[in-house]
Write a structure and sequence with these properties.
Blueprint lengths: L21 H4 L6 H10 L8 H28 L7 H10 L1 H6 L28 H9 L1
Helix pairs in contact: 2-3, 3-4
Length: 139
Amino acid sequence: MSGRGKKQAVAGKPGSTPKITKSAKADLQFPVGRVYRLLKRGNYADRVGPAAAVYLAAVLEYLSAEILELAGNAARENKKTRILPRHIQLAVRNDDELNKLFSCVIIAQGGVIPNILSQLLPKKTVRDAVPSQQQGDSQ
């Protein structure tokens, strides 16, 4: 056994109730028990309360859902069905709050945000507007 995965209660034993994980109690997808274990072993503080793991797992789940939603929208705009690092980069950099959070992060294979300075764009010529005025005068 690798020690991973959910342990199922034996169906034949009387009085056995199915195990309810901390994630299921908190209605989360992220593993609260694993976050709690990593918080304790990480030496971040002398004491770690169990509510800290629930809160941190909820924050991580919210952030990942937000990024995946925006990256999925970016992938759909590019007519792709798979989210690539480029789509994550576009999603993060186009959102003000996520851009501030990820300001010191470089996303591998993400590329850069397309940006052309207005001074470098070709100027509108005057001769394009002149023929339309002359046609109006001749009528």
